[in-house]
Write a structure and sequence with these properties.
The structure is a homotetramer of 203-residue chains.
Chain A lengths: L8 E6 L3 H4 L6 H11 L1 H14 L3 E5 L17 H9 L22 E2 L14 H7 L4 E7 L1 H14 L3 E10 L3 H15 L2 E3 L1 H6 L2
Parallel strand pairs in A: 1-2, 1-4, 2-3, 4-5, 5-6
């Protein structure tokens, strides 16, 4: 079990948008089954409470909010970019692109630049802002387990951070994606893969 | 089906070491079943022949060859680093860390810096050397489907490249890892996921 | 003299804020002498007109707009960060942090993420967005010659771009800083260092 | 005056090759006057002794050793690349590309990947290897003040490190280059610019 130097640990909350986390959100129906099964919302609440109570720094790691024109003149939009072009996920100025009200940034939180792809580190200021707070350990939660969470975690390891995944504070569209994230790929790069309960107990 | 501007396309061959590709290699026993099933060696031979015949630039993307002391004074070695510390995979100066004789670099190939983690781009010169050759499309093959290949592919997309995975020119330790790489995660970031035969037919 | 493939060339306009370019701006008094001497404003107007007329992509590369709290909890703010903390340069929501009205982004321009330090590439999406437009050549103008322009240019070369500096479409606080930027350091990394007139003549 | 947490401080010695530091080296004649004036060799000896005695981690940050073919098929070699193509500086396998015998790596030192441009961080593993040793402060010495040292220092600041330049443990080809490095540009990004004597006194 990892132990956390609390003043050097950050909680990275990835993409806490209504589109992902709220009933009526554009992506929510696709993850609802697994989110319900693992208790996603309740675990995010518990994490939020416990980590803040222990003084852990909170970083909000948001996906690019879709704007008209996005990706349309890009040379090589990825399949995910194409989906977003069609569905307008996390549209800027719309409810879906607003923070889920329980997980909006609080005073003192760091909101990093929006990421265009899947990794919260790629083409953003996340690494710099973690370094400027002296962070060495990151605990990553939010959506989706096998896309943004996994990509952010893989980058964190390449950048030299200690990486923790929280298996029931994330979700995915299919069970095999959860399995891939936590049983197949996570164990190759993550330093700890724990439940919300285990994490809180270890603080 | 993607089409390839041949003078702007590179073939990234990841980790063509004896330890991965040759009988007697340290990792080979763990991938042998799937390598045999997909015809890995024969497909790598076909790709190598066809891509070179079409003038596609070949980049060798090698994992750090283990040396005594590696990772021992690192703050946060990953689970993969710990495995390598125990097993001495791709040891520098040993047969396992030599190129498989059929896939050694040829004159004119680019051998990029060794990567410490899973992505061939992280902490190496791969992006610069691709840019300096004017490369915009990368075709990624080699080992392992869900670790170095997937990490290299994810980074390539974040960096703005067009990314192709070749599903039978790679292997993994388990079937569900191949499934995760090509059916679950690849489709979120890769622009094309093809067989060796399909790729060659499209050149 | 360099020639420019116009569909692969971008004009990077760095920090076109009132604080830098307008009378009454916080930094303007410190650069006014040299700006006047080289004809900065008029040259930026000429560049803007000529490059847009030739269809060159325009990228606005903005410095972080100061907000209350900025840098205060950073571990190692640089001397430049400390100056900004004291002076509130480019304050968000104030006139000084607004675009100079003649150089505000126009429809179709790309406004990249704000940079925290001196390089427009560091901790931002500039490289990705250039790549996604297929850009290979960058023409860099704006402020200051020996800080943000030089840092952006040095990074551009390290990233594999063709780099042009425009010696009279920038300014600095002292003459020796202009000399350092264009006669000492620029010649080590920039592919072309030209006047506005020379650049326009070469399009 | 900065103080240094010795277990989190690294000494980055940039390009300690015979071509730079030894009589008979290819670049040495161009820097000899200033090197002699500031006492470069003797100061590097003092730094080496003092920093090792205090247990500071030593990182060797080497320029790419020239090999036949280097840069010849590059799209945009920089002016510095072109010079190296003509002069074969730091040729691999030749005396000029060997370490100056007094500054060769010692057991326990970290030798990072060779850099292709000017910054020791660009396209190398320097950031990762510093992070994996828990380094937060870098003291940069070696050659040249306004090229590799300055570029490495600028990147270090963008990456969130505390940066110290040592004004008499470097050299340049001209006095105005030293002035630019330490009086004009360094003061914008470096957290400390000191003499060898001042640095040693502060340990």
């Amino acid at each position: 079990m990892a132990t956390y130097p609390l003043d050097r640990t950050a909680y990275l909350l990835v993409d806490p948008y209504n589109d992902f986390l709220s009933e009526g959100g554009k992506v929510y129906p696709f993850i609802e089954a697994i989110a319900t099964e693992v208790g996603l919302l309740d675990n995010l609440r518990k994490l939020d409470r416990a980590l803040r109570a222990h003084g852990v720094a909170v970083f909000i790691v948001p996906h690019r909010r879709w704007e008209p024109g996005d990706y349309e003149d890009w040379r090589f939009p990825s399949p995910t970019h194409r989906k977003i072009m069609a569905r307008h996920n996390f549209a800027r100025g719309e409810w879906g692109g607003e923070w889920h009200p329980e997980f909006a940034p609080k005073p003192g939180d760091t909101v990093v630049q929006e990421h265009w792809g899947a990794s919260g580190f790629a083409n953003t200021d996340l690494d710099l802002r973690l370094k400027q707070k002296g962070i060495t350990h990151v605990i990553i939660a939010g959506l989706l387990a096998n896309t943004c969470i996994e990509a952010t975690g893989r980058y964190a390891t390449e950048l030299g951070y200690h990486v923790t995944l929280v298996r029931d504070a994330t979700a995915a569209m299919q069970h095999d994606m959860m399995h891939a994230a936590h049983e197949l790929n996570g164990p190759t790069y993550a330093h700890a893969i724990v439940t919300t309960g285990e994490l809180i107990a270890s603080l």
